[in-house]
Amino acid sequence: MKSQIVIDEKNSQILWNAQGKGKKHDFNLFKNSKMLINHQIEIIGDKGYQGINKIHKNSQIPFKKFPKKELTQAQKKSNKQLGKKRVIVENVIGKLKIFKILSSSASIRAIPVLLLKLRGS
């Protein structure tokens, strides 16, 4: 079973939990969850959400490095800034581990997470 959580960046609150059976791509789990997110809300995802900007224009994911092609300095800087925002996510996942909220630590390590941010907050 694969779980996905959506977290509010402002207060670290878990807003949504979606689950799917078997191996699933993070983005497919998101699409199949039928979660509706207002387009004013910014979504920050990890590399597993390649393609999310096709259905939610106000989204960010890290730039992906391709073989034989280095990232630009601007892309590296952007990835670093997104990585700093993931500290919130890692803290929430740490709490889920401590309180054993999900069935196993293996499933907790593999939780894809989306971080939401209201514009202007």
TrEMBL record:
Superkingdom of the source species: Bacteria
Q: Which residues form the DDE Tnp4 domain?
A: 1-108
Q: Does the keyword Metal-binding apply?
A: yes
Keyword entries, A-Z: Metal-binding
Annotated GO MF terms: metal ion binding
Q: Which InterPro entries match?
A: HARBI1_dom
Which cofactors go with this protein?
a divalent metal cation
Quote the protein name from its UniProt record.
Transposase
